[in-house]
Amino acid sequence: MSRTKIVPIPVMGRHNINAYLVLGRRPVIVDAGTPGSGHRIHDRITALGVDPADVSLIVITHGHIDHFGSAAELHRLTGAPLAGHIADLGPYRSGRVREPYLPTGPMGRLMARNRNLHVRAEPFEPAVLVRGETSLEDFGLAARIMPTPGHTAGSISVLTDDGDLVAGDLIAGSFMGLIPGRPANPPFHDDSRQNLASLREMLALDPTRLHVGHGTALDPVRVRRWAEREHDRLTRLDAAGRLAPRDE
Q1: Could you please report the per-residue DSSP string of 141-189?
Q2: Do 138 and 23 meet the contact criterion of CB atoms below 8 Å apart?
Q3: Could you give the count of Cα atoms lying within 13 Å of 130 in the half-sphere of its Cβ?
Q4: How far is CA 221 from CA 84, 119, 200, 227, in A?
Q5: What angle do CA 184, 187, 191 make, to 5 degrees?
């Protein structure tokens, strides 16, 4: 059996925002970028020699505008069904993220003021509604959708049988990917403790690489070390009463 291939599709900058093309028996797209990115993703996969009409599924990792913004457009361009977790149906159906954003640090506090994060995207209805671990064999991919809540309630990742984890915003590259290979929090989490628990669950499955929404692929050894430091940091914040998850 040939190895499943993970191909990053830059949506903004070289690595600032990524969608992914996952190549198995049939191609699958993971994430749809910001509003207006559909044609860019479509043209990129065409340039890679993939017929967009062959795409079997578009997986949306979570309900933030830089990941589902062009989901409806990309569905029209490819004809592929959309998959998303039931816990993020609110943003998908309304086209609006849950607000306010909950920053993980200074960058998040700065980015929360960016009006582009508060726009309304075109709504969509997932044809594949994810509730738990879901095989992608029927879509031509030796992989599973894995629920990884915390960044948002409905965050999901895609784990291939070869060990590649397409992780959405479960973890990110430092400074939105500007420092290659260095793990960091993305700018926002709805529940940092739950997100860290999800990250540790995925690391326990021994992934070979973590392919993230912001930045280049991360080495799991470095991510494990980062997760230990993050556990200590969150423990201190919790003890100080400074760690409040989204109340929903």
Answers
A1: -SEEEEE-TTSSTT-EEEEETTSEEEEETSSEEHHHHTEEEEEE--SB-
A2: no
A3: 30
A4: 29, 37, 12, 10
A5: 90
Backbone angles phi and psi of 220, in degrees to 5: -60, -25
Nearest to 51 by CA among 42, 63, 60, 39: 42
> Which of 229, 243, 239, 242 is closest to 193 using CA atoms?
243
Cβ within 8 Å of residue 135, ≥6 positions away = 143, 144
pLDDT in tens, the chain (248 residues): 568 999 999 999 888 999 999 999 999 999 999 999 999 999 999 999 999 999 999 999 999 999 999 999 999 999 999 999 999 999 999 999 999 999 999 989 999 999 988 999 999 999 999 999 999 999 999 999 999 999 999 999 999 999 999 999 999 998 777 778 899 999 999 999 999 999 999 999 999 999 999 999 999 999 999 999 999 999 999 999 998 888 76
Half-sphere exposure at residue 132, Cβ-oriented, CA atoms within 13 angstroms:
0
**91 and 117 in contact (C-beta within 8 Å)?**
no
Residues 6 or more apart whose Cβ sits within 8 Å of residue 96: 120, 121
CA torsion angle for 136, 139, 141, 143 (degrees, to 10)? -10
